[in-house]
Each structure stands twice: as C-alpha cells, then as structure tokens.
C-alpha cells in the first residue's frame, strides 16, 4: 500500500477536481488496494511518519514551505508539486497578481525542495525549470464524458468567467466579439456579462460553485461553441485548454485567438460553418481520446509515483 497525502483544501473546487479528485480516484480504481489517498489542509507533522508521497498544490505560504522542509528533513516521503497555473508569471492587471507576486520567492524556495513536478502544460515545464524532474500531466476527461455525435445546429455559444477572466475579454476579445456576435443565435455568459456592445441574444447564468454540477450542465447544454479570448502572455501560454475540452464534451468547438498553439491545435480562430464545425469537433474528440484521456492520465500518475519511489 502506497500512502499519498495531498496538502490542499479537502473540498471540490476546480483545482482539486481536475488535478486530484478525478485523476487519483481513477488511479485507485485501476489499481485497487495499491494506493491510499488522503487530502487535507491541516499540516500535521506526525502524519509524515506514515506517508510515502506528499503532493503540494500551488503552495506559496510560509507554513507550507516549513512543512516541505520537514518532509525533506525526515527523508521518508517523496515530495511532488502539482502546478496548473503560472503563478510566478501573472500579469499586473490580474486580480491575484498582488497576492502571488508578494510570495514569489516562497514559491521558488518550494520549487527547489520538491523531488518531482506534475504540470498541466509544456510551458509550465519552462516556468518551473523542472526538465529532468517533472512531466506533463494534462487535464483530462473520461471517454464516457464525450458525446457520440456533435451538437445539432442551434447556434448556442458560451463564455465562462468572472472578474479574473474579464481582462482577456476587454484586452483581446472586443473586436472578435463584434465580428461574431451576430453569427450566434444565443449567447450564454456564465458567471458575468462583460461590458460589451451586446445584441438581444444574451443571457447570464449564475456561476456554478459545484464543479461536478457545472461539468454535467456543460455536457447537457449541447453547445455549438465556447469562446475563449486570451491575452498573449506567459501566464496564458501556460494555461491548460479546459475551455476546448469543455466545448468538445458539450459537442461543440472552441474559438480562441490561441488556436494553433500547443494544446490548442484543434481550436479555431474564425467562426466556421456548421458543416466545418462538425469536422473540427470530430477531430477534437479523437484528440481527447488520444492525448487528454483520464484513463491514460491515471496510469501516467501511477507510473510516475512508482519511478519516484523506486528511483
């Protein structure tokens, strides 16, 4: 039995759902009886005497740094850090910039301590300078999450976000929205409505705090597309392609100015016809099954842990 301790809030939020709860529960399912996984925010030093692997998530506070030092001092457990955002490369206008920028040195000290990195994108390998002691664990979904066919031609599109995503709309997406808004029959703005020049085809949905419930709603909506404008910057270069995954599991496509970049190869930068969108969706589904498949992701994590413990 391999005992794994995750230091994070023991609740379902976007980070825990995408990075821990789904992939590690799938790992337990594939290897029954082999892994005992516990997630906690309480830093209990005594527990370190009974664990084999400690996983940290976006840690940049003094308590977690001291806890990581204790893990290394004891020498019993291996230390993994799971990173899904470039917290050391936030833009000054990002609403979490002040918080993370103040703690950048703490993050770098933690980076120096960990034995291995799990990162969601290739760019994060560069940001963390972890080549040779890390690998890409992309955000992924189960094959059963994908529909059998694309959404019917209803012209239903979505943008999802809150305050921290709105600069991407205002700094990058205004011209695109003006160009495409009339091609869409119905817009869903999930979380907030950015201050744009809208037509009478827009509705706002309350931000869903339950990630599993949100994901099921996205699948059930059968969207034709998800719009994801992104300001070109290192932070967004390192961002994972969840918007494209969401579009695909809903039966639609993803429109973004990042189309063609790494992990966004199956997104589009211009609004296609419906027949073109069907072909794009089919290729997106094939790509998810090949490269963003949670069954493979669980095996990848298991193999990574085995190498780390036996290396």
Could you characterize what this model shows?
With 311 residues, the chain is of the alpha/beta class. It folds into two domains: 2-140 and 293-310, Rossmann fold (3-Layer(aba) Sandwich), CATH 3.40.50; 143-291, Glycogen Phosphorylase B (Rossmann fold), CATH 3.40.50.2000. Helices cover 40% and strands 16% of the residues. It has helices spanning 14-30, 62-74, 97-102, 104-113, 122-127, 166-180, 211-221, 234-237, 242-249, 274-291, 294-310; strands at 2-7, 35-40, 53-57, 78-83, 116-119, 134-136, 156-160, 186-190, 202-205, 225-227, 253-255. Strand 7, helix 6 (166-180) and strand 8 (186-190) form a beta-alpha-beta unit. Helix 1 (14-30) packs across helix 11 (294-310) and helix 2 (62-74) runs parallel beside helix 4 (104-113). It starts with a strand and ends with a helix.
Provide a brief overview of the structure.
With 311 residues, the chain is of the alpha/beta class. 40% of the residues lie in helices and 16% in strands. β5 (116-119), α5 and β6 form a beta-alpha-beta unit.
């Amino acid at each position: 039995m391999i005992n794994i301790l995750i230091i994070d809030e023991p609740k379902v939020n976007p980070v825990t759902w995408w990075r821990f709860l789904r992939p590690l529960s799938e790992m337990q399912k594939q290897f029954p009886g082999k892994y005992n996984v516990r997630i906690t925010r309480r830093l209990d030093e005594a527990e370190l005497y009974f664990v084999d692997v400690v996983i940290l998530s976006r840690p940049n506070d003094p308590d977690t740094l001291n806890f990581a030092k204790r893990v290394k001092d004891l020498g019993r457990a291996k230390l993994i850090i799971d990173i899904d955002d470039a917290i050391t490369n936030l833009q000054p206008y990002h609403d979490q910039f002040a918080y993370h920028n103040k703690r950048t040195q703490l993050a770098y000290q933690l980076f120096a301590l960990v034995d291995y990195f799990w990162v969601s994108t290739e760019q994060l390998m560069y940001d963390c300078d972890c080549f040779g002691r890390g690998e890409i664990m992309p955000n992924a979904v189960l094959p059963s999450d994908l529909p059998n066919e694309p959404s019917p031609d209803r012209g239903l599109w979505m943008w999802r976000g809150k305050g921290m995503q709105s600069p991407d709309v205002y700094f990058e997406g205004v011209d695109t929205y003006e160009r495409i808004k009339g091609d869409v029959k119905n817009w869903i703005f999930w979380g907030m409505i950015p201050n744009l020049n809208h037509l009478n085809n827009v509705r706002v949905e309350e931000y869903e705090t339950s990630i599993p419930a949100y994901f099921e709603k996205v699948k059930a909506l059968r969207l034709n597309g998800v719009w994801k404008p992104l300001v070109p910057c290192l932070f967004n270069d390192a961002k994972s392609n969840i918007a494209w995954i969401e579009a695909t599991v809903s039966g639609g496509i993803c429109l973004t100015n990042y189309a063609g970049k790494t992990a966004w190869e199956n997104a589009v930068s211009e609004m296609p016809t419906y027949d073109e969108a069907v072909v794009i969706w089919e290729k997106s589904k094939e790509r998810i099954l090949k490269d963003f498949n949670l069954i493979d992701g669980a095996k990848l994590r298991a193999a990574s842990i085995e190498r780390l413990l036996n290396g």
